[in-house]
Amino acid sequence: MPDVAISAPNEAAADAGEQIALAGGNAIDSAIATTLVTMVNEVGIVSLSSGGFITVQPPDGSAPHTVDGWMDMPGRDRALGGGTWDIYTDYGGGVTVTIGAGSVACHGSVAAFGEAHQRWGSVPWRELVAPAIEVARGGFQLGTASRFYLDYVHDDIFGWDDQSHAAVHHDDGTISTGLVNLPDLVGALELIAEEGPSALHTGDLARLISDDVIDRGGILGPADLAAYRPIVRPSLMSTVGEWQLGTNPPPSVGGVCVAAMLRLLEDHPSADVDHLVRVQRAVLGHRLDTLDHSEDLERDAAAFLELIDRDHLAVLESGSTAHVSATDSDGGACAITVSSGYSSGMIAKGTGIWLNNCLGEQELNAKGLHGLAPGTRLLSNMAPTVGHHPDGSSIAIGSPGADRITTAIVQVLAGFINGGLGLQDAVNHPRVHVHRAGRPDEDVKIETTPSMYYGGVGVTLRKPDGRLVAAADPRRDGAVRLVHGRDGV
């Protein structure tokens, strides 16, 4: 029974990780259980209809791997187009998003959890789902992140579907301050506990989801759900100081940006804001100009990283998510980032599950709505990252925050590894973000007071002597647990 450190988006989620650790679970088990609870109570941020990535550092120090459970383009047996409309929101600095049934992509995060659990987990699957069932059964209040987001979109996105509107509103149309209750979600989770992740891809639960999407003009059909498979890849590696860091590889673009920025920031103090802005402008601008439109992202990402390694100067002159981190005393580390986009606004009838709108996240669909071939993975900003140090230390880190994900992670790692800051101090440190890098309306945003706009980093660390540290971001309702597996908390 290893000791486990957990960094979670909220207290109930952290309680779930603690419960699993006390039952003998390792970092991977605890992270999965924690994330499943966020899929219940982080309304508007993430749901079971989500995609995500899990990066795992095995305790033996071997190379990390990333399980890709990100969104697939649906439409294998349906005509593309229809079932959507656009809304504009000031959330995240101002963005136009596409919602409705036609914006629903093929989910994959829970399937990825199943793959990771089979490879590295130790506690029975049913036990991992149990805390989420209890949170759904008892009802829950909206947290700070949910309320902040809903303040912008509660009517435009969450108001058009009757079930969705009733779940998060009082009768007078204001955002709910009481318990959110979704009885159908309890039944959906019980099916997932009993049947495993396949319940979301085949069988009655999958049928309820696809039937409702199709009935409302969408394109997510049963063939799309049944064909979905998580993919396990070697993580994208970078060396920072003596740390070997593994992050999300292509076809995600987020991990490439993290690796690039870390390499460009090496040997620079974290307080060098001018250099940090140059790095963000170069990397995020290259993403906008090249990576987002690449026909071969693995090739173009490798070429970009090779150029950085060869000549830093040449490079410098030229979007809603939830994250959980966990490490254990055996040296294992697990970073999970998941997202449902901005939400399609609809709850699939009979399931209690808010469906994603990842086809409608315009920054992730450079080729336009329904512009990819069915079965193709969408782009992603996500960059769950783990690391191993020769002295036996291990780390897990990640963040929500759309295009601020990469800049938040990099600044915390730079502060911790290069800047000599303690883990919590590195998380707390003010951040910088180059918004719309490379565009005419580019804006350098410098944080003067803590704001969830700049992400919500969660990070856990195993020290060389086996002691554990966890840090959560004060910009969101973060919560941490340090669990002694043999002796209690």
Short characterization:
This protein is α+β, with helices and mostly antiparallel strands and 489 residues long. Helix content is 35%, strand content 19%. The protein has helices at residues 11-22, 27-41, 109-120, 125-138, 144-153, 162-168, 183-195, 203-215, 222-227, 254-265, 273-289, 297-310, 312-317, 404-418, 423-428, and strands at residues 4-8, 51-57, 65-69, 85-89, 95-99, 231-234, 236-240, 243-247, 322-328, 333-339, 347-348, 353-354, 385-388, 394-398, 432-435, 443-446, 458-462, 468-472, 479-483.
Shape category: globular
Rg value? 21 Å
The total domain count is 2
Side by side, the strands of the main sheet go: 6-3-2-10-9-1-19
Mean pLDDT: 88
| Count of strand segments | 19
| Measured distance between first and last alpha carbons | 13 Å
Q: State the major sheet.
A: 7 strands, antiparallel
Which range best describes the helical content: under 10%, 10-25%, 25-40%, 40-55%, 55-70% or over 70%? 25-40%
Structural class: alpha+beta
Task: Tally the helices.
Answer: 15
InterPro entries: GGT_bact, GGT_ssub_C, Ntn_hydrolases_N
EC number: 2.3.2.2, 3.4.19.13
Pfam family, one: G_glu_transpept
GO molecular function, one term: glutathione hydrolase activity
